[in-house]
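Attaching the record inline, Q. Sequence:
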Amino acid sequence: MKTFFNVIGYTIKKPDEFIQFSKRTWGKVIGYVFLLSLILSLPLIYQSIEIAQTFKKDSNEIIKKIPEFDIKDGKLNPKNYEEGFVYQTDSIVFTFDPDNKRTLSDIQQDQMGRALPIALMDKQIVLVLPQSSSATDVVDTKTFTFPYASIPKHDSFNKESLTKIVNSRVNINVFMSVIIVTSLFMMFGSFIFSTFFLTLLANISNKLTLVPLKFSETFKILVYASTLPVVAATILSFIFPTLPASSLVSGVTILLFFMIQNTIRPRKVK
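Structure, as predicted:
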């Protein structure tokens, strides 16, 4: 944490100090990326915890609407069933669609505010993470599908077992753990990708301005230069949940790098 606060100080007062981070070991750099990814994940984790508080109540309300069902040959098999439906509560937008009339895109578009879209489809369960500043930039990774055939003891999965799952404290804790771990790794992957792209741009600038930095050194500096933008974007995300945090972080980080670059640019001899 000492490094974290030192970096913020360097950003404000001593950008020339960032050159030291170009020599950091990869182990320390990757560890720092995990720290920044965790910070970026906080708004999504916070929203998920809020959802969990009403998730159990809303889930029981939804289960009452679902007809009796079981899983046969990896497919949803409802009893006394007429047609599918979409039912919305404060925390969930639930789709019951054994006929697969809705697409993944339709379910993704159910995402409104902090509601969690969940669907029981013909052959799979679909889960869409809550929209947040950090998740909106990684659209493809927000949606997760779980085929019934991949669920342990899926042959015994039915309305009764679903009720037990929803009302189990252990399962709620597991659900929150999955959300937290998924959010962290989603942000980690996004952060690595965006920093690599920024490094490509920064490396071109290094060549043009004769700054003697290798590609790997530039990448490391950009990781540490993103500290203050990450903190600022995370704070703003709590105030403005739909703010594109990753884009904001990238834009400010590359501007900070140009300031750092100017401190190590070779000076002309007069």
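Helices lie at 2-13, 26-63, 104-108, 159-166, 169-209, 215-225, 227-239, 245-264. Confidence is low (pLDDT under 50) at residues 133-141.

More tomorrow.
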